[in-house]
């Protein structure tokens, strides 16, 4: 356990409302939508391997979580309904997502709009990939 860093005291996946509820020992509690977790997954598939290599995630409004696996005593690995399962969410990262949720949502909406999705349509419709590029290739 990390000294001085908030540690989780409870973790509940609510499949009907599609949120992960996390409480920490400093008294903070967060309700993190599965969609937020999926679009901000710390995986290389989402983040890329460096600055500017991020892949915008679309069509994730109805994403579910099929399971959650512990990773040591420091993280979890959600298994999303779209088979994405490579993101390891540390306690620090979950806390950061909770603390910055409003700003992250706004940044996500801004990125969708910049990619040509009006309103929140990118949350429903997966991005159409042009050509035969591989995963993570920008078009």
Features:
single chain; 139 residues; alpha+beta; NE0471 N-terminal domain-like; three-stranded antiparallel sheet; 5 helices; 27% helix; 24% strand; disordered C terminus
What does the model show?
It is a single chain. This protein is α+β, with helices and mostly antiparallel strands. The chain has one domain (8-115): NE0471 N-terminal domain-like (2-Layer Sandwich), CATH 3.30.2020. The chain has helices at residues 34-39, 44-47, 91-99, 101-114, 121-124, and strands at residues 8-14, 19-24, 29-33, 65-71, 75-80, 89-90.
Q: How would you summarize the topology of this molecule?
A:
Layout: E1 8-14, E2 19-24, E3 29-33, H1 34-39, H2 44-47, E4 65-71, E5 75-80, E6 89-90, H3 91-99, H4 101-114, H5 121-124
Antiparallel strand pairs: 1-2, 2-3, 4-5, 5-6
Helix content: 25-40%
Helical run tally? 5
Radius of gyration from CA coordinates: 15 Å
In N-to-C order, the SSE pattern is EEEHHEEEHHH
Q: β content, as a range?
A: 15-25%
- CATH fold-level topology: NE0471 N-terminal domain-like
- What is the number of E strands? 6
> Major β-sheet, in short?
3 strands, antiparallel
Q: CATH class, anyone?
A: Alpha Beta
| Gross morphology | globular
Low-confidence stretches: 129-139
CATH architecture: 2-Layer Sandwich
What structural category do the secondary elements indicate? Answer: alpha+beta
Order of strands in the sheet with the most strands? 1-2-3
Overall pLDDT confidence: 88
Number of domains: 1
**How far apart are the first and last residues' alpha carbons, in Å?**
42 Å
């Amino acid at each position: 356990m990390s000294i001085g860093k908030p540690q989780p005291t409870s973790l509940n996946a609510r499949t009907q409302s599609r949120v992960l509820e996390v409480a920490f020992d400093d008294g903070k509690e967060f309700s993190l939508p599965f969609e937020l977790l999926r679009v901000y997954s710390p995986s290389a598939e989402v983040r890329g391997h460096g600055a500017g290599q991020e892949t915008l995630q679309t069509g994730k409004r109805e994403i579910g979580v099929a399971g959650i696996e512990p990773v040591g005593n420091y993280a979890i690995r959600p298994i999303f309904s779209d088979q994405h399962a490579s993101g390891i969410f540390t306690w620090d990262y979950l806390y950061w997502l909770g603390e910055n949720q409003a700003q992250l949502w706004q940044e996500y909406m801004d990125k969708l709009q910049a990619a040509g999705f009006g309103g929140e349509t990118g949350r429903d419709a997966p991005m159409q990939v042009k050509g035969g590029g591989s995963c993570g290739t920008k078009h």
